Amino acid sequence: MTEIERQQYDVVVIGAGGAGLRAAIEARLQGKKVAIISKSLFGKAHTVMAEGGAAAAMGNVNSNDNWMVHFRDTMRGGKFLNNWRMAELHAKEAPDRVWELEAWGALFDRTKDGKISQRNFGGHEYPRLAHVGDRTGLELIRTTQQKIVALQQEDHRDHGDYEARIKVWAETTVTRLLKNGEQICGAFAYVRETGKFVVFEAPAVILATGGIGKTFKVTSNSWEYTGDGHALAMLAGGTLLNMEFVQFHPTGMVWPPSVKGLLVTESVRGDRGVLKNSDGKRFMFDYIPDVFKDKYATTEEEGDRWYDDPDHNLRPPELLPRDEVARAINSEVKAGRGTPHGGVYLTVVDRMPGGAAEIVKRLPSMHHQFKELADVDITKEPMEVGPTCHYVMGGVEVDADTAAAIVPGLFAVGECSGGMHGSNRLGGNSLTDLLVFGRRAGLGACEYIESLGADLPSVPDAEVEAAAAEALAPLEREGGENPYTVHHELQQMMNDLVGIIRKEEELALALEALEKLRERVSNVSVAPVAASGGRGYHPGWHLALDLRNMLLVSECIARAALERQESRGGHTRDDYPAMSAEWRKVNLICRLSGDGGVSLKHQPMEPMRADLIELFENDELKKYLTADELPEETK
Amino acid sequence: MADLITLRVTRYRPENDTEPTTQDYEIPLRKEWAVLDGLNHIKDHLDGTLSYRWSCRMGICGSCGMTVNGEPRLTCATFLEDCAPGPIRVEPLRNFPVIRDLVVEIGDFMRKLPQVKPWVIREEEASIDSEYLQTPAELDQYKQFSMCINCMLCYSACPVYALDKDFLGPAAIALAQRYNLDSRDQGSAERMDVLSAAEGIWSCTFVGECTTACPKGVDPAGAIQRYKFTAAMESLKAFLLPRGTR
Asked: Which of A98, A431, A505, B178 has its CA 20 to 30 A from that of B163?
């Protein structure tokens, strides 16, 4: 058998984005020995692409804000399908996590009196997003990255070794979680540079791998987002929750083709940007759904007044939650009122009091991005935008308080976990999600390890051998298909059949197509990059292994999308256009079936705690809940 | 039939090659394609073994730095058309060891970073149920130096680093200044030794190539010049003033 390196840790964190780094910091602060395994280089994780900000009810800009308002907004945004306990913890703890980050040195834009400034965003009642320009994610990563480096200096002082208690395994990819009986006992990985295998022996593994965007053709996500954590959890016996909910961000670049899907931050709309169709009409006023009537302006004049006097005016409908805006854009384009490249117009021209200079100051990265990549000057011309696959709300089913999955020793946090955002995530909630639950996952993993005492699971040889054989298979197979071809077909199919608007026939076709793709994925082959089986930095081999993960999550999305016969948040069924209170009570749970496919079951939603229900007006509850679920006095 | 352009790509497979070689690939010359799109086209359609780093496609992750026609560039922000008629030479970043093809080893930078203590240093730790106050004017003092995406273009461009690998280098010094100039920080004295050492700011001959190469307008050369003044003032003070008043 191939030579395999072995490493021992207390906690292995897979993923080095905001969630993974925050989890690792917590486990290290609790005195555990931690490995951070990162598919890309340290500091390059997908979190750096987050632009808008981190939502936390600090009340720095509008003192009416508090955790209860934030909780309500999050539940509304998710159309009440959220794990309400997660939404509660998130709303309560987000301010502490932002302040903590600030104390660690994060830079934020400031109010005149020197507090952390907060900006408006879709679905948030008050200005709530702590931000720095439009590169907040980068600042979050730099700060947590440098916090880790600072902790490593302490470890060097105390133990003589920088990596004594926290080591970053950059450009290393996990292909399997390892189990001893029912328990997690480690992870199997390859190092990209050499292609060599490493077995990480650890009683606790935290998945923080992010999303699944690369299963779709048009996406804002980068190459890392292949659903690794989702698939690893399933393969280890875990369950995925509500995978049908995929967020298509309403404003991705639609032109030029090389950058199609790249994100145009929601801050553009938070900072007075408006959407127009090819007739020059601000069409969003035609798309305010019933559940949000009376919460949004009905005239352009009122909407525009809101930016300066939010206490006495309703906000413009451009700031509806993302799912609403994405569907509206889709409808306008379908109705023939789209732009030449199949999007709609988003413009800030003549919208800011400070003119062009203010646009450049408030949206520096956007100004740069459009100038550089599309040769469009956003101070003079409108942007062309359309929906792009951006985020998956569905993910590993976890305990709200500890981030524990159903498999003992397995934890999941951030985008790869499910529940927090319900059927649709509000912008700004993901960065604080990473911090709040990153910390909780770190704590949860430490408590779990304590509970094991000296009784730590060993790694069975058979597990390692099976993982190694699986990883080598594409190199040993001959004459199989090119992984890139299979990947492109999967992406195109998902875009065409499981995209933003879905219907039964197409979803059934998608499942048939996936069946065939599954066979092809198990038959891809790649040639070594160099003599004697060389697999160092072998992009084709990496993709061949990632395909298994993308295929599994695609099947979960398609199956759950076919099952859920309603439209809600990030799941829109052409054949079931209404939201159903009965379906709100249902969580769809995917797990691996015996034949390597996906099985699906209904699981009842736990009723919301009474003190949380009381935070809502009864008239609003009636829009979401069945008559049985309403508080007594409303019935 | 679309126009074609040649990418002349440096290949290096340590198991097979003693020296890097070049390989030509004909790719479509599309108006909207960046060099990175060309490389992705090669990987997806022509040669699945070509190795290089990339991630975000939007100039924020800093992964895709390479030497394009002799200049250090982010390949996601360098358009084929601007390099026409070709062949376009795509080489790994200079001044770093090459791992394979276009992938370089940047461990040296990662080891240098901690030396400048890139975190807020306080005499007393803050409590987390509050925030430090910092006015927009105080923020403007250091904001520019916080824009660094660790893309390594400045090290690749730096003629001093090319000759002396011990030189702390542009991005690390700019990062030190990011914290020195942060009103929340009280650690500039702790950073002084490493910055003022022979391998620190005084190695810089102020060629300014780093600032030219920087895709984010960080201006490392400006940071270094400014710190030279600070350091000179400090040593002058040390020379002229009795200890207590420093």
From this structure: B178
